[in-house]
Amino acid sequence: MLAIERHNAIKEMLQQQDCVSITELSKQFGVTEETIRRDLEKLSAADKNIDRVHGGAYLIKNADLEAPFEMRKEMLVEEKRSIAMLAAKYIESGDCIMLDSSTTALQLAVLLKETTQQLTVISNSISVVNELSMSKNIRVICIGGSLRHNSQSFVGYAATQALSEYRANKAFVSCSGIHQTLGITDNSEGEAQVRRLMLTNAARRIMLVDSEKFGRSAFHHIAPMDSIHTIITDMEPELPWRDLLREKRIELVCASAKE
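Below the sequence we write its predicted structure tokens.
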């Protein structure tokens, strides 16, 4: 198959299913994953509605500019799991914690579901609530509101009103980008509002951020850098970032440090 034929086939697949993965395309077309990566880079450069992300690409169909939840679940899985394992160390029996609708928070919920600790978990995520629903030691509080299909979460006025009634020991929150001057930001206005309130209503504010999000910014502000207590990530950021976090007295915890 010629490259142009493969490109057209990939575009047809995106129109039909909104997202594609490098691994699946490599198997389907019988070419290397590196070839598929180059294909996706060319397609995204030529079409502003195709966004190239780690592990694949997706078709932008709404203002959120965010990959579908099911696709994000399969992206950077090992990195998110390593972040979740570090985050779990901050949780103590008796804690009330808040988990947002990020796929990293979902990985934390997976780790917690068999816990012997007595916990209360407050979340706006359907996936997090489902994951913890059978746990005998976790009291689960689901924040209702308007269902956001792209993230399988509840947002909007009802969600923030319900969330405003609760206080937590710790909030574990992710974002679309973390920027030196613009702070913590998100592609979704609704998610940004919920995440902002989770951080505001928690005694300890912990960001779960994979290393690809450092230096990025999005449309909607969540919180300034100064308001964060801890950032947990998979890989140690560059020296300017480490200096900035040290200056702001933000604890940096990395699953693996650069040599």
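The longest helix spans residues 3-17.
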